[in-house]
Structure formats: structure tokens, C-alpha cells
Amino acid sequence: MRIINIDSFDDERVAAYVSLTEAQLRNRLEPQKGIFIAESPKVIDRALAAGREPVSLLVEEPWLAGMEDMFERINKRWGDNVPVYVASPEQLKKLTGYRLHRGALAAMRRWKLPTVAELCKDARRIAVMENIVDHTNVGAIMRSAAALDVDAVLVTPSCGDPFTAVQRAFRWVPFSKCLGPVSMPKHLLALRRSMTPNLGNTPKKKIANIGRRKD
User: Fold this and answer.
1) Going by fewer Cβ within 10 Å, which terminus of the chain is more open, N or C?
2) Are 1 and 84 contacting, i.e. CB atoms less than 8 angstroms apart?
3) Which CATH number fits domain 116-194: 3.40.1280.10, 3.40.50.12780, 2.80.10.50, 3.30.1300.10?
4) If pLDDT is split at 50, 70 and 90, which confidence band does 83 have?
5) In CATH terms, is domain 2-109 a member of 3.30.1330.30?
6) Which pTM value belongs to this model?
7) Least confident among 53-62, 122-131, 185-194
């Protein structure tokens, strides 16, 4: 690891933590080249265990010694050139607006998502999110899915970014997006053919019952 002390957050090397928007982090045109931010050593550790590649870390100076084992694992897997930017607690408080008690952030590469068929092939429990635009709600559903031992989560393109949700997750639930011209009802019908039963809930009064739809 390369330990680099940061004197100012105007430094472009820490732009991912300071100035990039969610859309810029996400990189809509080439998602596999985008990044996401993992918060806290525990979440970073889970991400590393899942094979997610770190781009850089931003660490509070007092936390450095306690993360040496993590740094060693990163060195062995991805080489010793991953930068660790170090700032004082006071600097990070100015950046976030509050004391960063978790001590560390990591910019990590997004990965190529599986297809719907690949994701659902061996799944027994699948959660589906349609048009959930608020990131807080997406995060709550992802964490609930993890708590309920859901095997896979499907989201529509208009949903909030699931990568934003996994940045705080302590258990990673595989997910993918329903892309292309195929509508969500058709995706659900395909799932229904391979899995039973279908369970769901919506506050809408006028909604099609997928159990009674015909192809």
C-alpha cells in the first residue's frame, strides 16, 4: 500500500470522495468502469472478501495501525500500489460534516452484473424492486433482503442505484438489473414459471394480478 498524507481535499486524487456525483461514480455508459464508495472497515472487509477490487482508501490517521492486516491482504491480492490517503479526524469532519467514527472509506470498482437468468438460476428467494427511486428506500430493501436471507434482488433501470445501497451492507445480496425492451411483468412471469409461489405487496388498488395474467 502507498500511504499518502492529504493536506487538502482540493487534491484531485481524492475527488471520488469529495466532488464526484453519484452519476459520475456510476458511469452510466460503461458501468464496469465506474466505482462505488464502501463505508467503514467492516464493509470494506466484506467487499474485499467478495473479490471487489479497491481503487484507493481514505483513512482517518488513528485507524491506520488497526487496518494493517487489511492492507496486507490487499497487497497480496492486488499489489502494493493501491493508495491509502490519510487525513486527520478534523479534516474528515470538515469533509463529511460530522465525525467519521467508522474511520475509513474505500473507492472500489463496480463489477459486471449477471443476467437475470444467471442471477435467478439457483435462487430460492428473489426480491424485485420496480421504480424505487429513493436511495434510502433501496438501501432499506437491500438490507432487509440480506436479513431475510433473500438469494437475489432484481431492480428496474429507474430504481435508485443498488451500488449505493451495498456500500453500507454487512451481507452482500447478489443483484442485477432488468434491462432492455422486456417489461417487468414478463420478467415476473418468467420467474413464476420456474418458481412457486409468487408473493408480493403494493399499495396500488388497480394492479394486474400476475397469477392471473396470460402470456
Assistant:
1) C
2) yes
3) 3.40.1280.10
4) very high
5) yes
6) 0.68
7) 185-194
Supply angle C-alpha 17, 19, 23, rounded to 5. 95
- Tell me how many degrees the CA angle 206-210-215 measures, rounded to the nearest 5: 120
Give the strands of the sheet with 126-129, arranged side by side.
Answer: 126-129, 152-155, 175-177
With b meaning 16 or more CB within 10 Å and e meaning fewer, what string describes 80-93? eebbbbbbeeebbe
Q: What is the pLDDT of residue 72?
A: 95
**Residue written as grid cell 493536506:** 7
H-state helical runs in 4-134? 15-18, 22-26, 41-49, 68-78, 89-96, 116-120
